[in-house]
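Section 5.1 Outputs to date
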Amino acid sequence: MRPSVDELLSRVKARSNPENLGMVLVHNGVVRATSRNGSTVRGMKLSVNRERLRELIKETESRSGIEAVEVWINEGELPVGDDIMVVVVAGRFRSDVLPAFEELISKIKREVVVEEEV
């Protein structure tokens, strides 16, 4: 079951040193009704490599200026409109958090999830 964004925010704040916490970014990926090439999509099949996800979270949290990371990823057959993932990255400055956030999401898409549009 998907945790609420508030719950994920509470988790990262609880694990963060408030003196080092200046920015929290949230990404909520959702199944779209069209693919990148414009064709209609009814949904998607999604599988997750949980071990690789744990490694990526640990790597991201070890970056300078990053305080905490929370990631939830759905799995199975997802209809249009369902949540695919929620990613939360908390850290010191925008210059620390933005690059870590973008890199983590890109690596999740490349290395953690396998998506098949249906």
